[in-house]
Request: fold
Amino acid sequence: MSETATAATAQAPHYSFFHGVERNFDKAASHTRFEKGILEQIKACNSILQMKFPVRIGDKIEVIEAFRVQHSHHKLPCKGGIRYSMDVNQDEVMALASLMTYKCAIVNVPFGGAKGGIKINPKNYTPFELEKITRRYASELVKKNFIGPGIDVPAPDYGTGAREMSWIADTYASLKPGEVDALGCVTGKPIAQGGVRGRTEATGLGVFYGVREVCNTVEDMKRIGLNTGIEGKRVIVQGLGNVGYHAAKFFYDNGAIIVGLAEYEGGIYNERGLDIYKVVEYRKTTGSLLNYPGAINIKNSAETMEQECDILIPAALENVVNAGNAARIKAKIIGEGANGPLTPEADEILNKKGAIVVPDMYLNAGGVTVSYFEWLKNLSHVRFGRMDKRFSENQNNTILKTVEGLTGKKVTDTERTLIMHGPDEVDLVYSGLEDTMIGSYHEIRESLLQNNGVQDMRTAAFICAINKVGVAYEELGIFP
Reply:
């Protein structure tokens, strides 16, 4: 076993993800104006539901352990994904729920934070068995009043997707007959069941928009010795799940050079660049990244992150960059695509090296931002773009004809199509997400510049979040 793997294994049993979040919170809280009592309320997990329920799997009964944590009720509903993993435990779910509170605050999404998890390996079950487990979990949430369009709205996470969300929505609707907003009880649904276009790629696209904005900020690039812009930047992506794949795809499509990719079976590296589409097709065919033509094999997946690059995107599970390997990370920009991929010790090491660590609570907020759009769509019962698409196209056509008449020149067919195009739902979703990620980055950056003694973006992001949640609690008037 390598030194990296040994360090990670040795550290894992002693590391509390939730205490790591609390540690970052406390570091930032000293830069805010709120009294200790309000800060303690913001930090605390308000409601924790731990459950065990029986499900018949094959010819035997299996007892399933599951959780749902509502971290904050300063805004309702609460919001957060449901993950299926054998690593699910109460500490992890509490940490992820608290990060959701701060994440929503940073990107100005009016939700409290929540998170859920079922302690299973979904690969060990048939679709029918997974449906039984999911529906039973959903019915338990309904029973305990831990789900509803105005109470708590789950979403996909690690090990879950649109299929599982459709089962939850259907279970909720069957137990709440006549509730007109029932589809708003969960987001990340299939389009035919009230989902929104653009949700699948939202988190990965948000990662791209966020890192692109960092790269477009002249002062930040000058400080780390890189040119502005995303084009030509060397990128390593760790994890090729939904988030990692889409992040890599958008970086590749916009001129970045994907030099390294890593998955659980290992990693590959090519300093001249990898074609993300061909790599994904190769892995589908062979079942592995390894032995991809022209690339160097890296059998220990974690060591892929230590190769030469400008941007590193850890987009799999938490704690992959820790005290044992942080010093060997060469990237100047680390964009946290996953939740909690860096431990606090790794944060300190990388910040001392002068790297820009773009924190998860901002960078992977694309998913919850577009989930917010889906929730709004479900409550309004109107598809985005339906009311104004044709109006915009007709107006654009009138303007185009007027300009052509005045100039005596005709545009090409391609230009005509581009100019006349009215916004579809996915156009509006992408636009809303892009605006959110750009605006939120500059809020965090302003916080970093205004608070003397704050040296890192994570602390600045926490300050932003604490200020917004603290003001919300003050406005609620719940402190006599």
The longest strand covers residues 47-57. The CA atoms of residues 206 and 230 lie 14 Å apart.
